[in-house]
Amino acid sequence: MSTGFSIHKMMMDRYSIAVFMMISFLVGVLNASEGDSDLHYRSCLAECEETGCVGDQCFRHCNFPSDGVLVDGPWYMKEPLYLKWKQWECESDCRYACMTDREKEREERGEEPIKYHGKWPFKRVLGIQEPASVAFSALNLAMHLHGWLSFVNLLYYNLPLNQDKKAYYEFASLCHVYAILAMNSWFWSIVFHTREVDLTESLDYSSAVALLGYSLILSILRSFNVRDEAGRVMVAAPFLAFFTTHILYLNFYNLDYGWNVKVCAIMGVAQLLVWAIWAGVTRHPSRWKLWTVVFGSGLAMLLEFYDFPPHYGVFDAHSLWHGTTVPLTFLWWSFIRDDAEIRTLDFIKKIK
Ligand SMILES: [Zn+2]
């Protein structure tokens, strides 16, 4: 009886192990891209993580002690974080070397590039994973900084101020917050495209959601001309609650890409619609700038959906999408400056 039970139990254990392995294999395959499910790539990776070499190319990051403790050495060498970092570096170096090898073979056979771990095979420049996206993100950051500084210059040095030395433009502080969120978002985009790890990824995603959410609120407040504090709080509160929950959900519960793409797409399209409708009904003298930004952003969004492999190993759809927002950002801040000027002069006319 007892032997029968233990044999039965052993079989159950084996059965559950087999089921578990099947499920993890399936999950692995479903999560994988075409490139990293390739057997040659997989064996190259396994060998590299073992020996630290691919062909005659060897990586110093792969020589970390297996017991996890460095006995001699300064305190920061003993930190587990340091070892983890080396592990990441080793994995990333091996993946890159194996991917480059495989892609060279595929190119010789005249085959198109394929994705590895959800990413196109980019050429690294100075250790930067996606150089084009980094360069364009930096340009976007510079554009926002330039736009914001010229907005501040116009508001506080060129336009009249009220008795309290404050700007007449009612949307000034909303624009300052917008500028800070935009620059924050592009900063993390630079970091993320330079080196992709879980931490940089969630920082990039979270700041992008914050920026998108905030600009949706801004579009509603400006186009409906909501000027009093109570009205603004009423409009913003439900949105703020939703975005905060969404960011917390992504970071601490489940980084669900599909769901996040849907949320971001809805927020993006919603604010383009709000601006487009307003641009259609308003008599704002600079409405053509708004039209151009809305139309341009709509077209640019298509790049994000039409995902093509990188040209010259550098320019893929995502990086070009970051590229198109550079001139749009310039025009956008130019619209904000016009708006500030027009509203201030209108206000002065009224009080005279
Ligand atoms: Zn990006």
TrEMBL record:
Signal peptide per UniProt: 1-32
Principal location: membrane
Name under which the protein is recorded: Post-GPI attachment to proteins factor 3
Family the entry assigns: Belongs to the PGAP3 family.
Secreted recorded as keyword: no
Membrane topology: Multi-pass membrane protein
GO CC, any one term: Golgi membrane
Organism of origin: Gossypium hirsutum (Upland cotton)
GO BP annotations listed: GPI anchor biosynthetic process
